[in-house]
């Protein structure tokens, strides 16, 4: 049989502080239930003491009142314990929040440190100098080109540019009027005059 490799269980995200807070809240809830039972018992004992007193059983009524007084002192102690548990729970939860903030600041500082390490001041100055030199060289080339052209060259450049612009514009087709069947279109006076000039002149014998 082949060896079966078991998958590793993912690490639990529950911390010891989370467990402590959970236990405190569970104890708080149990203490509140205990308080509720005492309060119900106090009400019951008081009503029973009244009935015994009405029946003339003074000693038994007195005994129930002593029990009631003792339970009242226990109830006061549980109030103090609840207050301490609530305060401790809030302190632990606030400490967890502070820890998360500190961890976030720590990670941010480490990331910033790595960025600063990757940025060398000498390299940055070298890049800036090379960029500045490249810009200056390009400006010199432009100045030489502009200074080496005559006025005639500039006119030729402008003409070529205008020609390129006109070629890029859409052409508009020119439509000539169609000649209708059976209708002669009279020629223009200019064409008729030119034809008269072209007729040969007869020489006299």
How would you classify the quaternary structure?
single chain
What is the succession of H and E elements? Answer: HHHHH
Mean pLDDT: 77
Low-confidence stretches: 201-205
Class from helix and strand fractions = mainly alpha
What form results from the Cα inertia axes? Answer: rod-shaped
For the sheet with most strands, the description reads: none
Question: Radius of gyration, rounded?
Answer: 54 Å
Strand fraction equals under 5%
Q: What percentage of residues falls in helices of 4 or more residues? A: over 70%
- The first-to-last residue Cα distance is 136 Å
Helix count from the secondary structure assignment: 5
Number of strands: 0
Can you lay out the helices and strands and say which pair or pack?
Elements lengths: L15 H39 L3 H61 L2 H27 L3 H18 L20 H10 L7
Helix pairs in contact: 1-2
Could you characterize the architecture of this molecule?
It is found in: Endosome membrane. InterPro entries: Snf7_fam (IPR005024). Residues 102-141 form a coiled coil. It comes from Tenebrio molitor. The protein is mainly alpha-helical and 205 residues long. Helix content is 76%, strand content 0%. It has five helices and no strands. The longest helix has 61 residues, at 58-118. The chain starts with 15 loop residues before the first helix and ends in a 7-residue tail after the last helix. Mean pLDDT is 77; it is low at 201-205.
